[in-house]
Design a protein that fits this description.
The N terminus is likely disordered. The strands form two sheets. This protein has an eight-stranded antiparallel β-sheet with strand order 1-2-9-7-11-5-4-3. A three-stranded antiparallel β-sheet has the order 6-10-8, with no helix packed on it. With about 220 residues, it is of the alpha+beta class. The chain is about 15% helix and about 25% strand. It has three helices and eleven strands. The radius of gyration is 17 Å and the shape is globular. The N and C termini lie far apart (about 40 Å).
Length: about 220
């Protein structure tokens, strides 16, 4: 059962915080217990607006920055500053997932961004600096040609994760990750090594990310 809720366009301030998390929705622990997963059931209510908000800001130099294909074609930073109700809603849910997964009463975002992948883009294995935990939201997984798998799969490749070391302990042999569909949000320790494989789809693949801590860190994050 969902909590009573107004439309996304009406949500702001205290009202948004009150209705940000669907009633009764529980997170699940993945095989690797430090990774938690939740899939929101109400994506039809806000995904179109959120996708439009991302794409509308891709050429806005106030927020957007282009990168080489190996780390995604473009990133649009600071979701909380967009002034968009759908972006504010998903930002509140990311903070809420951090609190639910870690038991923290506070969730301070060090940096947030949308990543837009186009055909040929991918992300090399990396960790997130200045992050007790990282949150990733799968907004649009894209589409392949003629029903083919478009790629762009998010995976972990970390020798500290038993699930990635199926042949020998502490020897990474098997990249893997939670099954992520549109509306899925995951949270994991920011130090875990992860990547996105080659995207081959014809529609932009879009994810949202947050680096989150229990308290604010000094200085500014690099990006």
């Amino acid at each position: 059962m969902m909590a009573a809720c107004c439309s996304v366009s009406e949500m702001s301030g205290v009202t948004q915080k009150q209705y940000a998390w669907p009633e009764g929705l529980k997170l699940q622990r993945w095989i690797e217990r430090s990774v938690s997963v939740v899939t929101f059931p109400d994506i039809d209510d806000f995904h179109p607006q959120l996708i439009d908000a991302v794409m509308a800001r891709e050429d806005d130099r106030t927020f957007a920055k282009s990168y080489p294909g190996h780390i995604g074609s473009s990133k649009i930073f600071h979701l909380d500053r967009w002034g968009d109700a759908a972006a504010s809603l998903i930002d509140a849910r990311a903070r809420g997932l951090f609190c639910r997964a870690t038991g923290s009463e506070e969730a301070v975002v060090d940096l947030s961004w949308a990543s837009v992948y186009r055909r040929g883009d991918y992300s090399l294995p990396h960790s997130h600096v200045r992050a007790a935990a990282s949150v990733v939201y799968f907004l649009d997984s894209g589409v392949g040609d003629d029903g083919e798998d478009p790629g762009g799969r998010f995976s972990f490749a970390d020798p500290r994760m038993e699930v990635c070391c199926r042949q020998q302990a502490h020897c990474m042999t098997t990249p893997c990750g939670p099954l992520a569909e549109a509306g899925t949000m995951i949270v994991f320790p920011g130090q875990l090594v992860h990547f996105v494989d080659l995207y081959r789809g014809s529609r932009p693949r879009i994810t949202l990310s947050w680096n989150v801590n229990r308290r604010a860190l000094p200085g500014e994050p690099p990006y």
